């Protein structure tokens, strides 16, 4: 199985920590993990994981969306990191282009409107900006990512 971590602007520090934490859990379950993001998001991830223990593949966000649109690639599970309306747009894009089960990873100060806009995606949400602990607790509440794909 394969999973995509889709990240927008790394404006909030918790995004990088949460992405690496989820990647670790996915790797332990045998998923092939790909990270997609803008240059800043990917740079933060790769600098935090220089030996590629967690993030084995990384791709530019726009290239990833183009590949999905052109049916060159697809995923079983897609985590969209959301802290603003642009994250909701990425979620809608993935839902329209991919067969993947979507997981909305919502964080920031004002998460309630984002939760409402996430539709039928599996939702992991916590008020978190700098400290990843509240979001990590929600992530730990999921016993198996593979179970979500069934």
Automatic annotation (TrEMBL):
It comes from the Archaea. SUPFAM superfamilies: Hypothetical protein MTH777 (MT0777). InterPro entries: MTH777-like_sf, UCP006600. It holds the Pfam family DUF1890. This is DUF1890 domain-containing protein. The lineage of its organism: Archaea, Methanobacteriati, Methanobacteriota, Stenosarchaea group, Methanomicrobia.
